[in-house]
Structure formats: structure tokens, C-alpha cells
Design brief:
Chain lengths: ~675, ~675, ~675
């Protein structure tokens, strides 16, 4: 989980209004002869669109420091002033996500090396070695100057460190730092050998210098090495982040600091990074054919990273991107609906990448609020401006609300790396999809969900669901057992409890440290080829638990050691053997799902758990309508109609829609893709 | 388009007969103990097959210069004599397409470097850096000796420089030459920064030395860099070509010079190279499942490259190749039909790769006139000999005819690079396929088509079609507008007028410099995922314009600014918006197609244009029969039956078939795969 | 095939019982605090499972030699003693398949270089250059110490050199050794140029130093170079093997020596290696969806490699692997059935990888007899123990039996490389699948088959089938002709007789040196695209030869030169031309199959040949039941039911089942997946 402890927080963010705006890169236009006019037009249009915050400087290093010994802040001073005059705040980037050309030329070892040993060439962004000392020194010098120059500016709201972290490297400096990291983790080389089981294939290290990063043309036989290197890369990026943060907290202790998460970066362990963010922020780019629960899943993760504190939707596109495999336009109303969905899941902002469409470069066809056409008479600008006007209706009290979830989905980065390790018995693991398989069933029932790490306290939850929890430490296993014994409900699935934190197999019977909690022993597992199905038969049927479901991907052969079978397999030589088990342990209960049921099967499972635990949706809504509840000094219900038809929702009491100010006595009609934010009327 | 100007031409080629023959590599047999007999047998069989030209020396560098200081021309002298005695001409290769092993060993930097920085190893062909000075020096020394030795030989007809150009390289010498090339193009580094929009992602160059070739592990974020590097590679290959040409023109000013084009090489801009060819030549290798219009498309491009001058079919296979994904035999009659199709589109030769099948190497299974069996009693030899006999029937006057096209299809290499740039909003662009989509509809109606560059004069055409013209300079836009104003008809499609010649987006509204000509503004575009369809409804229906068609791939959202909608979309939120527009501008008219219609839709478009403009086929023929017309001192109609059934063609006047010498009064029957060359009988 | 001659054999292996056991890696547990107990438990469980042989030391180099100057044999001494006390024998690995980390660090050139020139990094196994002198020296030093220390140990049964050979390398040392190898093969450089046909593309070598290994970024145009480099790699690995073998034969002349084959390694020519094995051994890992004939094919190859001598099944999995694309469990009974299938095809052992499941590393999820659970109360352990008990019932006389095959399938590694060379006219060749296409039809009829090299004597066979024999030397062609003339029956197919041993095309007419034997001339070939079919019509129909069959992939155009057409093509321009021919030559007959018939077509061919030649199955059995016969002092029929239903087999005489000791008078019922080993009862 990284060896950094959260530092001192900058002051919390207070929201007098939802942030609205986007990435603004005025330096892109300084090559234009009428760039001053473009800037003035930008500010005019921002006001027209209701913008109150822009992200500046994200990629401005070359514009701010054209040579190692020369700084040119003047243009940024001007922009700050122009924005401040219009009461537009600034989220100031530290500009370190893309080093200038002169830097790569002067310090070629700044460029990362791939796992085959090939040094990258200058260009693009995030193209640096995360352990390189020259990069650290030069980026920190810039950050100090930025902090000193703008720290007290009236427009400054927030620091935005680098951008969408994720560099990887396998150079000699990284190898050296990796060895240091391992020494901290394991102490002696003998311990590393013991934990990584290097006795296989004569891999035993007899000198620290022999330990190197993994490589497809070198060591790729040790899952433990792979996973530790992934931990290391996350930590080295975090160390780079914290190097900038330390300066910002020193110079501007009053300004909050964060970096933006995006795309569920595989190399960045968000749970390890979250304590070092003053506020969580997220770049949201769902694919055009993603179902709405997939965005919700990410939103809930963001909200959960800091225990339900409001977070920021920092980027989304107003129309389309150019980098997905397929890039159709967002249909009218979709951008608005997606924006409110973020708010419904705890965001306090709606921001876009980017303000004005770039004239060149890789993202020149990425949608923007102001398109290449350049004026405001476009569908997209009008939709953005309409949303900007609406957001002003949100009362500050609404922005201080939180969501309460009694259900947690357990997720962990090292576990992700372990599940999708190429040396498992199945090539068809998709950890995130498996999490979403369970998440979707909860979302469809409008049950609020937190997404938590196995190292977090569980006691505030009625139900914890941990699909594919293959990597479980002794301590994590004990915490889960304690949680169940004290009355919690825990559900896990096949391929769980297989390895410890060093990816050593648990001996003595799967699922290792979860075995006692679940009351089972998994003797064998049968990874099914794609298309091969088995069947689940529910036993002890009730109104809430019945039927037959198909299942796929994997079947465990489970012995009951106290647990009872809730469902059995219908086919193959293990027909009649337990497929879903239930166990009462202490004051709580635990469930084991020995396969991947189809969607209907997972829905029946959640139905049964909802019934047993009395889990409730905030309001009763028809299918396709999403409802969430944010609570604080006031209680707000967010209603989102994801369907192309009007939907009617019955209300338990009269409510007022914040967006229309209308009061609804008994029911409310939501138009296609429509939204309402309801507050009890009296 | 490259900075080379066409040099002095060698004398034009006069055709007393169509060239017939192929690549002949006698040096491949010198390792054989009875090689003299093989050569004598070759010459005997050539006479039997009607051969009058062979390409010699294409890959003979090692045989001509076995060491840097040793030349061995004697064997080539002998071959020249043997051929001359049989009145067989020689197209003499400069032998520089594959350097000898000793050269790569002595000058390792001759070997090219890939974009990751990996130096190639010796071997294969075209395996050299196009800017390498040692390669240039040594190849030019050889060329001078060849020119001096054979320039006055009575068998010499033509110089064939190198072969199928296309080397690419990313070495330090290329980087240096690229910077020089850019300095010529942009002058100051500030201008390059401005044109490439390097302000994105801090890519600004502050020293020329920072500018490097693109790389998948370096700079790949700047479309402008990618496109300029492609221009540069085409130019550097052209510079190498011109280095050889200069010597040939100096020593043998009376002998025409060319190199052969093939496979629509992406890295070689044919329009830039064509002025430097004394005659255009083409290697034709259609896939077995290509429709006949695809070969015709390439033939028409070759003919157009030098304004309709006769060109040479320099290579085709008599039976099959070994390097396509699938390599079935050409069925009996297919080779003959394909040969006449080339003549029908302006070729004055039919030549093959190769004469005698190789005994080893990569192409040992490539078909040849004389197979491994070695004698003439084969189907393939007999078909070749029959065709050789037929070609002798072609009168010289027929070879001095030209084709007249009133329709032009616009094509450009830089535009190709821009359309298929990986950073556009669609991964599914296929520029050549889009050109062929329109070409096919014209071909099916037997309307003659030139294929021209946007930099060529348009005034001789009634109709110019420019699909996917995404890259348009100010000057090109103005020329198109002038053409329309003066009465021309212009049609273009979606994703046109997006960027200037430096791949900067056109601001102020798409389609940029074409907007006034088309009378529209494209506000947005919607790239559709594969399989997603929309519908075109024709408005203002007439006999020549009616119906409903499906369309796919892309839909623009078009505002009419003077233009009228000819068809509208049927689905989605832009249902009812213009899908095809028409605009009268000056004396002419322009059309915009905001999507990709299906084949029937494109056919209806061409039908309407044909009707409005009175475009006519040379003769009326049934579907599946192709007809072209070559005109000069005589008028010849080429009839080609692509179907496996006999077809009857009505004749407007009595005509004589050149191949059978028969006169047909009213009609002619074409047998399956049959051919006729008709000349008015009286 | 390779220039090594078989050395002096170690004494043959005498089998008092079938070997039973598996790979045992006790050093993997020495990091555990209770490792002594684990070892004791291992030995207890081995006895319980009926184990009598374990493979030790396969990957123990690091454990035996933790530094270049330090050896630690003590733990191995202990294991030897513990095993010997329980009468468990040892197959001792030379431990050289994976060098220790210290070795790669001290001698970095031990690491192999890929064909692009990239040096591998330390890690995994088989990660060494097969020509490296340091690797050879150090591995041989270890081998000598092992031989001296354990050569006389009472537990030692067999030496197991390295493991699953197959390293490849393209480094400068390999290039140098390759040149030496070529000098031995070709003598003068001129001869190499002549054989490789380097005159193509100016590839002529003028100095030995110019000759380099093939490379995808260098020379890949010469099939002859590719094939010779594959021969060279097989030979260099063999040289490394023989380096170890020489020491073992010197120090322990009484102990047999072998290495294990696996997976039909493309780079290791088993026919060249077999003479240097004292016994053949095989690691059997059929895919879960492989039909049972595929395992049988490999078993028959193993048996044939040393003329029918018993061989060893050295590895299989008791349950599943983790490295196939799909890794379902072996269903109950499958492991037993597969084990007996090996015995049925001449194996005298059943062994597993591995004894105890690894706790880490790449194969930690590979099945094992003792799973991570660690005790014997598992399905897998019980099945293994049951089989161990059964195998004790096999009489020693049964282990001295051999199989007699009157049919041979011809296979050759260089031919494999030639057929699947990327420069042939078809991308769809799969040599092994084509062999199996014919093998399957023989197997289904329970006709015993040897799999032999074209260099082996043919005179003991009634029928020799040589599919896709594209590479045929003059000598091989003569031997086949001699075989036919003296009464043999020979069948070959399309794409045969194309090239000589240097991959030079045969001139004068395909199929080159087989043409006279077959009485045909193949003028042309037509490689069909996938999905394109033709039809075979049988001519001269009889009860044993009739019908119409589809065929695909390839059609030859065949002229009869004495042969008669047995079937003709039904479609295309060669409809009516011969598709299958028959020729009587001397006392024998030959058949040519000019296409790939479907399975029914091949079955009809084999049916006709079986009928003509009187080939017989050992017993008549229903489809899905396999029967083989091992003969010696006694005659044993192995019956294997591959179906999930009980099958009844009629017996020609009363027989006794070795496994149940029951006598069956007239018939025997085989349960699903059931096995019987029948010996005539009286």
C-alpha cells in the first residue's frame, strides 16, 4: 500500500457554489497574431457559460520556462488578472506533466526506459522516468516559483499537481531504487527469496544487485516480482507527487492540493494515493456504449476514496473525444445527464476538457466548449451554458451533503494485479468487470455502495462484497473474520483466498485465511473455457431466493465445513456440489459464490441479501431511473432518467425540485434523459 | 509536394510496337554448370513468345561489382549481344535497389534505422537509408559506368532506376537532413512551432537540434510532424532517384529514364515524382478477389500522372504470386484480359515479373513465364506466347492514341496521410477505399476518369470529385472556388476542409476554404461505430434522383448557407438535417455529401451528375462489360468482358476488330473473358 | 540431420516394474521453517501412492551451487537417502536447464540475443545462449561433480540432462559458430552461394564474415538460410547436450542417459537427437479439447524414435496446467485413461509434473499430486494412488514387449521448416495437422503406425505415407523409389518434391525426385483461399473405393505419366483432371493425392489401402474404443474406451485382464473411460 503517510492537509475546500468550467490552455493561442482578442473572447464567453473555475497551466512548462535559466510568467499573470476580474477562479496546474524539449535534450536520462531496456525518445507527455532526480529537481524548482508567485493571488482556488499520473520505467536508476524499496520491505535478501519463492527454477538471488525489474525478455516467471514492481511504480510516482506537494504545503499552506485520477490507471494505487489528496478529482470518459452504472461505479469509487467527502468531476467532454476506438457525439441531453449523475454521486463540480478546441496536436479533434468554429452559436456551447445557469440554482447547503452507504464493495490494486497476473489458471479474468457485475445489481436496485480497500475498517457496513479477492493477508483475513463475528455480512467468490500479500499460495486449504470465516474448503477449481456453462440450482427456496441460473468461467469444488449449500451445480462431475454457500459465524454471516452466475443469478443473490438485511433504495423508482440521496443539513434526492421515454415517480411526501423550483405533491414526471433534484417541500 | 523541379527530359519514347516481355535475371543461373545453355534457351523461348523487351540488371549490383574496386560487366555484355541479335530490346536497371553484401559490411550506416532507433541488419532489398552519402556515392559510380558502357548499345531502349522505391529511415543523418528540409520549408523555428502548434503539451522547440523524426516511443503527438516526415521521406527517396537520373541524362541524354511505381506506396508521393519520369510505369498485382475496377483505378492514376501520355505496364504475374495472403492461380484467360485492360487504359506495354522462375530466394514460388519445369509446353507459356502473337497485330498508330476524360477524381498523398492519421476521430478511415467507392460508380458507367492532384489545373474537366479532402490549403481552396465560379462542377464529402497544409485546423467553421464554394457550415460531426447506419432520403425527386439509401461511417451536421438540401438524414437527432447539398456558385455548382452513402446511393449521385452534365460512355454495353476509347490518328474502342458468359454489344457503326481483323456490321459477341479492339471499319 | 554420431550407449534400462512417480523439487521447501517435516511427509505419501521413481534436481543449480566456488550437495544427499530407504529410485537431473542468478550476473554473454540483436535479461529458465562457452564450462563442471557424487548411489536409476531443450540465440558467438557449421556443410563460400541461390537480390556473399543469422530486420529473404539456421540451432543444443552426456558416460558408464522431449519443439530435430538418448522420454500435455488420437500420435512418434524400444512418459499433469489458453480439470478417470494410453503405445512409465504443488513462481497453479492443501484426502491423490496400486499388477514380461507397425508415417523437421516457411504460396500450411489428418484415419481403424524420418530404412513397412513431403533430397527420392520397386506402397500428397535439402527448387518438373516413382508431372498448383472447396470424384469405383468428397486448401494440376487417375476434380478449370493417382512401379505401387481431402475422403483412401494391403487391427472394436497390441514373450491387448458409455468388445479367444485378473470367455464390457489389458487366457 505504499510507505507514505498522509501529510498535513491544506485547508479543506468550502463550496459556495458548484465548480463549473474546464481546462483552459491560453498559451496555445500565443502563436496567433490576434491572440489577445482570443483571450478576451474566451473570458467573455466563460462568463456567458457560467464558468467559475478554470484549470490553468497543466501543460505550460515550456511556456513558463523556455530555457533552464529563463522564466516567463508574465502571460500567466495577465490571464490570472483577466479571470479574476470576472470572478473566475483558477485551479493552477504545476505544469509538470510534460517536460519541455530543452529538458529532455539536456538530461536524456529523464526519458523512461521500457522493460526491454529501450530508452524512450523525447516527445508527448508523461514521458519521464518517475525516479529521475533531474526531473524531480527541475519540476520542484518550477513548482516553488509558481507557489511563490501565485500563492496569494485572489483567483487561486486549488493546486493541480502534474496530470493523470502513470509513467512507468525500468531503467538502472529505477532498478536501484527498486532494490532500496525492497530492502525496506523485506530487510534481508533471504526474506525476499523466501517470500518470492525464488527456489523455483534456480531463481534464488545471492546478491541484491541481481534483483532487477521484471521484463518480457528477462524475469517474468515470478508473480511476486511483478506485483512488487507495480507497487513500487505506484510508490515512485507518489513520491514524485509528494515532492511537489511538500513545496506547495510549505509555501501555500492554505491552498488545497490534489492530482486528478482517470481511467482506473492500473499502475496507480488510488487507495494509497487518496490520503495525500486534499480533495479527490476524476476525469470521466465513459465509452459511448457504456451502461450508466459504469460511470456510477467510478463516481462511487471517487467518493469512497476519502470517506464520502465531496469530490470533483475535473474533466469530461462536452461532445466527443478522438481517442476511443469509436467516438460518436454525445446526443443532446446526455452531457447534462452525465453531469448530474456525478453530482448525484457526490461530486461538487462539473468541469470539461477543454475550454477551446486545440488547433493542432494529438487532441485537436477532442471536443471542446468553444469549437474550431470559434463562436457561441453552437449546440454544444448552448448546452454548456444552459447547464451553467442551472448549477447556479444549487444551494450551498446541498454541496455540504454526503452519501451514506451501508454496503461496501471491496477492491484493491494489488489484488487486481494478482487476479490478472498472466500465470493464473485462466486467461479470462477481468477484475474490474467482475466488480461491476456485482455493482450493477446493487445499482439497479439503487442501493448506495462504497468502494473500499481491504485495509479499511468494515464496521460501518451491513454488507461487504469482495469478488475475486485472491490476495488476502493474514491481517486482512482476520479483520474480515472479526467483522463477521461481530454481526457483519460478507460475500466473496471463487478464486479468493489463494495467495498472501507476496503472492505465496496459502497452504492447508483454500480459501486460506477466509476459510474459517466461510466454513468451507475448496479442494479444486475448474476454469471453464469461454462458452462452457454450468447451472446453479437454488436450494431451500423462498420468495426471495429461488430459481435456476446459468453460470460460467470457473467452478470450485467446495467441501462444507460448517457452511450450508444455498445452491448447487447442475452439471458435470461436481453436479450436486455446493455452488453458493452460507455460513453463520459469530453474530454474522458469510456467503461464498463458487462460480460466476449470470446477471439474473447475481440479481437474485442481491435480492436475497437486500431482503435479509433490509437494504433500501432512497425512493422507489421504475427501472432505468436512478436515484441517490445526499444528506446533510438538508436531504436531496437526485433523480436521473436514463431512458428515452418519460417516467413517472411516486413521491412519499411533497417535494420541491431545486432545478425548477416547482413543488410536486404526489408524483413527478421525468422527461427522457431528465433530471430532478428533490428536497422535501416543507 | 517536394522541392524538386522536373529536370530536362530524355527524348520521348516512340512505340513502333507495344513492348512485350518481362524482368530477366540471367545472373541467377550463373551458378549452374550449364548456364550458357540456359541463356541460349531463354533467348530461343523469348523469340517464340514474341518478346521484344526485357528488364535487365534490376538486382545485379553484386554480379556487376563483386568488390568495391572490381567490376564484372562481361556477362552483361554477352546478354546484351544475345538479345540484340534477336532484336530484343533492353530496359536496363541501374541495379541499385539492393546493395551487395560487401557494401553493407564496409559501410554499416548504409543500413536504415527504424523509428525506435534499431539499426537494420544486412539482407533483403531496399534495405538502405535514403539519405546515406556512401550509398549515394557508390550507387552513382555504378550508374555512371553502366551509362558509359551501354548508353550507345543498339539494344538499349530505356533506363530503369532502382526498383519499387520506398525505403524509410529514422537515423541521425536523416534527422539532420530533416532539420535542413524543415529550415527550407519554414525558415525560422518560431514558424515551425506556429505551424505545428507545438504549444500543446509543452512540445515547443527552442533549438533546431531538438527536432527529431517521429517515433512510437518518442514524439507521436504531432500530426504535422508525422506528415512532414512523410513528405521528407518521399523527397529524400526522390533526391536519391534524381542523383542517378542526373548522371543518366548527362551521359545518355537520348535515353528515357524512369522508375517503376507499385502498390500505391504510402511513402512515395507519385504526383511529386511524376514530372521526373520520362514515362510512367506500373507493377500491377491485384489480389485474386479484387474487382476489375480496382486495377482500372490504378491504371487511370498511372495514365493521369503525365497528363494522359502512354505508360508502361512493367510487371504483372503470368499465373500467381507467393506473397499475397492468398495466391490462387489466374484462371485461363484472366492474364490476357488483365493485359488488355491495361492497354485499354493507356498502357503501351505488357510485361511480366519474371521471365524464368527463380530457383531460390523469397520469390522462388512467384509465377514466371518459364517455370521450374523449364520448357514451353505449359499452359502459362502458351497463353503468354498467344498474347505475344496478338500484340503484334496492334498498329503503331494505335499506340499514339490518348484517352480523354471529362471527369477527375482528386487524390493527394499528404491528404491520405492526414485522413489516416491515427489521431482523427475515426479509426475506420480508408482513403483509397473511399476514392474507389466513387471511382467504381463511374467505372460501372464507363465514364472515363482522370485521377489528379489538388495542385493541378481543373479547367479541362466538367466534373471534379474530391472525397475526404481533409487537407486543403488556402490556394487549393481558391483554385476550386475559381473552377466552380467559371462553370465547373465540384463534389466533396464529409471530413473535408478540416486542416491546412500543416495540419492546423481551419478556424471559423468547417469546411474551411471550401465553405464559400459549397455554401454550407458543418457545425459538428458524428463518427458512427461500425455497423451503425443512418438513412438518406432524396428530396426534390426526379427520374434521375430519387429513393432512400443507407449510409454509414460518419454524419456531419450541416447548416445551409446558400446551398439547398438534396437529401436529408432519416434517423437520430439530426434527422431531417441535410445529408447531401447542392449549391450554385458563379457559373458552376458544387455538391457536399455529409456521409458515406452505400453503393446504390453513390450510383444515384453519379447518375444525377451524368444526367445533368451529359457525361457519356464511349459505347453502350451491358453490365460487366468494360469499354474505353483511345483516340488519336485513329479511334479505338477497347471492349473487355469481365463475365464468364458471352455478351452481345450493339455497334453504332460497322467496326473492325484489330485482333481478329473481322468486320462487325451491327453487333459483336464477346466470349467469356473476351476482348475486342474495334476501329470504325470505313 | 546434424553431424553428431550416436556415442556409446549407457546400459539399457531393465524394467522390473513400470516406473511411477514424478518431478520432485524438495529444495522449494527449504525456505520453510518446517521443511524437514514436509520432506518426511513427502516420502510417506510417495509410498502410499505407489511411487518408485522421482525426478530430482531438474532446477536445482542454485541450490547445489550457490556461488561459483561453493557447492552444497548435503541436502541432496539427505533426500537420496530418504528415498533409498523407501526403495524409491532417482532419475537425477543435471540441473542445467536454468542457470543461477550469480552466473548470469558474472557472465552476461550467457544470456541469449534475439534475432533483432536485443540481449535477453536474466531470469526464467532455458535463458542461455546454446553456444556460450562459459555456460558449457560451468554446467559441465556441475555435471561432473554430480556424476562423481551420485553415480554409484543405490537409488540412482537414470540421468536426466537439462530439461525440455529449446534455447535459441542470434548473438555474435552463434554467428561465428554458424559460419563454422556452414564451412563444414558446404566447404567453400561459392558452394554456399550456389546452394542458397544468393544471386537473387544481390545477396551473394563475398566473405564468410558477411554470413549472419537470419533476422526479421535483416536477411529474411533466403529460405535456405532460415532452414540451415534451424538445423544449426538444433545441432548447437545437441552439442551442449552431448557435452554433458560425455561426462556422464565417462564417469557413470553403467547409468542410462536421456533428456525429455516435449510439445514437438520446432527447434529440436528429434530424429537427430534420438540416437543420443539411451531411452526416449516425453512430457505429455494434450489440450483439454484434443482428440485422443493426438496424444497417440505423439506417443507413436516417441516409440518410433528408437525403433520401438519402450519409452518413458516422464511428465503429465494429474489434474490441470496453468499455461494452456484454457485449463479445465481433467475429469475423473481421464488421467488414468491417458496414462494407460501411453502404456498402450509403448511407454513403460507413468510420471507426473509434479509431486508437490509449488508455493510460488510461474507454475504455482500447475496441478500436482500433493496440492497446496497438503494432505492425501483429495480426489487427485486418490486417483494417483489407485493407479499406482494398479501398475504394480503389470508383469515384468509385459514391459519387455514391443509394438509391430506395418505402416509408417514419414515426418521430418527440415521438411516441417520448409513447408511452413513464410515464403511458400500458402499462408495456411500446418504440417503437423496434415500428418495428423492421415494419422487419425489410421488410428480410428486401430492400425499401428510408426512415425519415421525420410532417412530411415523403409523395407519393414507395407505402406509408407508421406504427406506434404516438400523437401526431398536426391538420395531420399532414390530410397523411396527403391522401396516401391521392391514391392512397397507409397503415398504422398500435393506440395511434395518441390525442393532439395538446400531448399532449391527441383527443376525439370515437380515432384522432382519422386516424379518417376509416382508416374506423374505436376505442371501447376492452385492454393485455394480458406473456405474455397473443390470436389473429388472417385473413378473405377469398388466396394472399397467410391463416392464423392470435398477437398480444400490446394489443388495440383497433374499430368499422368504412366499413373492412372483414381479420382478427379469436380470443379474449376481443372475439373476432370486427376486428383488422386495410382501407379504401379516395379513390384510396388504409389499414390499421389493432389489436394487435401476432407476426413471422409482420407478415410476412404485408408480404407482402400487397408483392403488392398490386408492391414488389420489387433482386435475388432466399436468406434471410440482404441486397441493396441504389445508383443514379446507374451501378447497383450490394450483396450481403451474413450467414450462416456459402456462398450462391449467381442473376443476371438478367452482372455485375462491383467488389471482385474478376471478371465473373459467371449466378450468384455468396458465401462466409460474404462481400460483393460488382455492376455490370452491359456
Amino acid at each position: 500500500m505504499g510507505y507514505y503517510q498522509a501529510g498535513q492537509r491544506g485547508g479543506g475546500l468550502r463550496f459556495s457554489a458548484a465548480f463549473y468550467g474546464g481546462d483552459y490552455n491560453p498559451e496555445q493561442w500565443m502563436g496567433d497574431k490576434n491572440w489577445r482578442e482570443i483571450w478576451q473572447e474566451d473570458v467573455r464567453l466563460m462568463s456567458k457559460a457560467g464558468v467559475n473555475l478554470v484549470s490553468l497551466g497543466i501543460f505550460s512548462w515550456a511556456a513558463l520556462q523556455p530555457a533552464e535559466d529563463r522564466f516567463t510568467f508574465e502571460w500567466l499573470d495577465d490571464i490570472f488578472e483577466m479571470l479574476a476580474e470576472q470572478q473566475i477562479g483558477v485551479c493552477l496546474g504545476t505544469a509538470t506533466a510534460a517536460q519541455p524539449s530543452w529538458l529532455s535534450a539536456a538530461y536524456p536520462e529523464v526519458l523512461p526506459m521500457d522493460e526491454k531496456g529501450m530508452r524512450h525518445k523525447p516527445g508527448v507527455r508523461l514521458n519521464y522516468c518517475p525516479t529521475n532526480e533531474d526531473f524531480r529537481r527541475l519540476s520542484q524548482e518550477l513548482v516553488r516559483r509558481l507557489a511563490e508567485r501565485y500563492g496569494d493571488h485572489r483567483a487561486l482556488r486549488l493546486w493541480h499537481v502534474s496530470n493523470e499520473y502513470g509513467p512507468t520505467c525500468y531503467c538502472e536508476n529505477c532498478a536501484m531504487r527498486f532494490r532500496d524499496w525492497l530492502k525496506l520491505r523485506y530487510g534481508r535478501l533471504e526474506e525476499l527469496n523466501r517470500r518470492w519463492i525464488t527456489s523455483i527454477w534456480s531463481r534464488t538471488y545471492t546478491d541484491w544487485e541481481q534483483v532487477r525489474p521484471p521484463s518480457s525478455i528477462g524475469e517474468h516467471s515470478l508473480p511476486a516480482l511483478q506485483i512488487d514492481y507495480q507497487r513500487f511504480l505506484s510508490d515512485m510516482n507518489l513520491e514524485g507527487y509528494l515532492g511537489e506537494v511538500a513545496i506547495l504545503r510549505e509555501v501555500t499552506p492554505h491552498v488545497p492540493v490534489m492530482t486528478n485520477f482517470h481511467g482506473l490507471t492500473r499502475y496507480i494505487d488510488y487507495f494509497a494515493w487518496a490520503p495525500h489528496q486534499d480533495i479527490i478529482s476524476w476525469d470521466s470518459y465513459p465509452r459511448h456504449n457504456a451502461t450508466p452504472d459504469m460511470a456510477a461505479f467510478h463516481f462511487d469509487l471517487m467518493r469512497s476514496l476519502k470517506s464520502g467527502q465531496p469530490w470533483l468531476l475535473l474533466e469530461q467532454t462536452s461532445s466527443q473525444v478522438q481517442w476511443h476506438q469509436e467516438n460518436p457525439l454525445k446526443r443532446p441531453g446526455v452531457m447534462r445527464l452525465q453531469s448530474y449523475q456525478a453530482l448525484a454521486h457526490g461530486s461538487n463540480s462539473v468541469m470539461f476538457f477543454q475550454w477551446r478546441q486545440a488547433r493542432g496536436g494529438r487532441e485537436m479533434y477532442h471536443g471542446a466548449i468553444v469549437s474550431h468554429t470559434g463562436h457561441e452559436h453552437t449546440r454544444v456551447f448552448q448546452e454548456v451554458a444552459q447547464l451553467g445557469a442551472e448549477l447556479k440554482l444549487l444551494e450551498p447547503a446541498l454541496l455540504e451533503t454526503h452519501m451514506q452507504a451501508r454496503v461496501a464493495l471491496m477492491m484493491s490494486w494489488p489484488n487486481w494485479w494478482a487476479v490478472e497476473n498472466r500465470h493464473t489458471p485462466s486467461r479470462y479474468f477481468n477484475y474490474i468487470a467482475e466488480l461491476q457485475h456485482y455493482y450493477r445489481a446493487l445499482w439497479q436496485r439503487n442501493i448506495a455502495v462504497d468502494i473500499i480497500s481491504p485495509d479499511q475498517p468494515l464496521d460501518s457496513y451491513q454488507l461487504v462484497i469482495a469478488p475475486l479477492l485472491t490476495m488476502v493477508s493474514e491481517e486482512q483475513g482476520a479483520a474480515i473474520e472479526q467483522y463477521v463475528k461481530e454481526g457483519g455480512t460478507f460475500l466473496t467468490t471463487y478464486f479468493s483466498g489463494m495467495v498472501d500479500e507476496s503472492h505465496r499460495a496459502w497452504l492447508g486449504g483454500y480459501p486460506g485465511p477466509l476459510r474459517r470465516t466461510l466454513g468451507i474448503w475448496v479442494e479444486e477449481f475448474d476454469p471453464l473455457p469461454p462458452g462452457k456453462m454450468n447451472t446453479l440450482f437454488c436450494l431451500r427456496e423462498t420468495d426471495d431466493w429461488n430459481g435456476t441460473y446459468s453460470c460460467e468461467h470457473w467452478c470450485d469444488i467446495v467441501h462444507l465445513e460448517g457452511a450450508q449449500a444455498l445452491a448447487v451445480f447442475g452439471q458435470d462431475f461436481y453436479a450436486g456440489w455446493p455452488a453458493i454457500t452460507e455460513y453463520h459465524h459469530g453474530l454474522g454471516q458469510s456467503f461464498y459464490v463458487a462460480t460466476r452466475p449470470d446477471a439474473a443469478g447475481v440479481d437474485m443473490l442481491i435480492n436475497m441479501l437486500q431482503s435479509r438485511l433490509g437494504l433500501r433504495a432512497p425512493l422507489l423508482v421504475p427501472p432505468g431511473v436512478e436515484v441517490t440521496c445526499r444528506e446533510g443539513k438538508l436531504t436531496a434526492y437526485f433523480l436521473l432518467n436514463h431512458l428515452p421515454e418519460t417516467q413517472m415517480i411516486m413521491l412519499p411526501e411533497p417535494m420541491r425540485d431545486v432545478l425548477t423550483r416547482r413543488v410536486y405533491e404526489q408524483d413527478i414526471q421525468l422527461s427522457p434523459l431528465g433530471v430532478a433534484i428533490l428536497i422535501p417541500a416543507y
